[in-house]
């Protein structure tokens, strides 16, 4: 799901990359990928460009106590993290996730 409300069912890795390119061009502000296997809607990852010129990727797997974020410098790194999360692909090395405080 994009900032504009556009949504895509079961996007491929390539579609996820194109959606992040939309954010890079400022056509969109953020993207959210939800796990449909969680009926509560509390399992998702989201990506946004941050003010430092890089990207922030967040993931949540349940309540607020399981909400984590990581900042990366490039669109490609944000795409890799988002893709690995979305398709449950093991990542090596894992990013240094920090717990998001609200």
Segments where pLDDT lies below 50 for 5+ residues?
Answer: none
Largest sheet: 5 strands, antiparallel
DSSP summary, beta strand count: 5
As a whole number of angstroms, the C-alpha radius of gyration is: 13 Å
C-alpha termini separation: 22 Å
Per DSSP, the total helix count is: 2
Indicate the structural class.
Answer: alpha+beta
Overall shape: it is globular
User: What is the typical, i.e. mean, pLDDT?
Assistant: 91
What percent strand? 25-35%
SSE topology string? HEEEEHE
Strand order of the largest sheet: 1-2-3-4-5
Helix content: 10-25%
Structure explained in plain terms:
With 102 residues, this protein is an alpha+beta fold. It has two helices and five strands. The chain has helices at 13-24, 75-86, and strands at residues 30-34, 43-49, 55-61, 67-72, 98-99. The protein has a five-stranded antiparallel β-sheet, with helices on one face. Helix 1 (13-24) runs antiparallel to helix 2. The radius of gyration is 13 Å and the shape is globular. The two termini are 22 Å apart. The model has no long low-confidence stretch (mean pLDDT 91).
């Amino acid at each position: 799901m994009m900032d504009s409300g556009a949504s895509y069912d079961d996007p491929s890795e390539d579609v996820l990359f194109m959606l992040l390119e939309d954010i890079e061009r400022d056509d969109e502000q953020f993207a959210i990928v939800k796990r449909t296997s969680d009926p509560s809607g509390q399992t998702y990852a989201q990506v946004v460009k941050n003010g430092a010129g890089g990207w922030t990727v967040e993931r949540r797997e349940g309540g607020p106590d399981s909400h984590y974020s990581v900042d990366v410098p490039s669109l490609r790194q944000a795409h890799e993290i988002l893709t690995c999360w979305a398709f449950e692909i093991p990542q090596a090395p894992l990013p240094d996730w920090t717990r998001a405080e609200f």
